[in-house]
Amino acid sequence: MEFQERLSRYVEEIEQALDQYLMTFGCNGQEKIVEAMRYSALAGGKRLRPVLTMEFCRAVGGDPYAALPFACALEMIHTYSLIHDDLPCMDNDDLRRGKPTNHKVYGEGMAVLAGDSLLTYAFETAARGMNGSDVTAQQAVEAIGILAHEAGYYGMIGGQVLDLAAEHQTLTYEELVNLQDKKTGGLIRAAAEMGCVLGYATEEQREAAKTYANRLGLAFQIQDDILDIEGDEAVFGKPIGSDEKSGKSTFPGLMGVETCRKMVQDLTDEAVCAVKTLPESDFLVQLAESLVGRKK
């Protein structure tokens, strides 16, 4: 199967599954919170993280569709983080994926609750992920542990804490890498590691996946920083220049755009090199290469 065909199929399956999971709510007067959850969870996007979970499972010899509930759980957590990240007390953004942010549509209180509900429902979704599949209880527990670790203060939340503390400060390169390794890299790392666990990967394969995820996560963030300077808002889907307005340190701010472009390519090359040791690597190679020079 060609890269684009497989990618489109994954995204379609993820979209359909998210739609189904979020349709199970809505009873007993809770329609508004479900509407707010669905507004952000079904707003499109690259679905990079759940795609990585499914593909890493396949790449090491597993069934990618057995990983689908865990992939959706990861995307729910990613979505909740975006809802909260856009709040006035955080980045105070009005636009996300080309649409008004959740709190602009539903109010700040409902947006907080929508994010909270997506977070808790994510773990319920993952906990039920072995029902009707070949996923064992041991695999499910390990995958959920990885997700919780990388979504919490060791990973994404820890990165957001560092991000808030660093506003209007100039970070060193090492400090900025550490921040983004947690904030952006955490869930990308979780995606790769969960897929490996669910696909019965060897330790060597898991290490290769982690290297790929670490390099890809940093390259992804640097490209995001570039787009925040010179992207097209209509394509990028969120305001241009928001990092500068918020007083945040960025990679282009430290090293310049051209140096950052080279870093994105070098990191992508390193990710590709790491993943070529897996039984099936073509899709992961093409996925990494497709993110170089992306416009959104």
TrEMBL record:
<keyword id="KW-0460">Magnesium</keyword>
<dbReference type="GO" id="GO:0016114">
    <property type="term" value="P:terpenoid biosynthetic process"/>
</dbReference>
<keyword id="KW-0479">Metal-binding</keyword>
<keyword id="KW-0808">Transferase</keyword>
<comment type="similarity">
    <text>Belongs to the FPP/GGPP synthase family.</text>
</comment>
<dbReference type="InterPro" id="IPR033749">
    <property type="entry name" value="Polyprenyl_synt_CS"/>
</dbReference>
<dbReference type="GO" id="GO:0046872">
    <property type="term" value="F:metal ion binding"/>
</dbReference>
<protein>
    <recommendedName>
        <fullName>Farnesyl diphosphate synthase</fullName>
        <ecNumber>2.5.1.10</ecNumber>
    </recommendedName>
</protein>
<dbReference type="Pfam" id="PF00348">
    <property type="entry name" value="polyprenyl_synt"/>
</dbReference>
<dbReference type="GO" id="GO:0005737">
    <property type="term" value="C:cytoplasm"/>
</dbReference>
<keyword id="KW-0414">Isoprene biosynthesis</keyword>
<dbReference type="InterPro" id="IPR008949">
    <property type="entry name" value="Isoprenoid_synthase_dom_sf"/>
</dbReference>
<dbReference type="InterPro" id="IPR000092">
    <property type="entry name" value="Polyprenyl_synt"/>
</dbReference>
<dbReference type="GO" id="GO:0004337">
    <property type="term" value="F:(2E,6E)-farnesyl diphosphate synthase activity"/>
</dbReference>
<dbReference type="InterPro" id="IPR053378">
    <property type="entry name" value="Prenyl_diphosphate_synthase"/>
</dbReference>
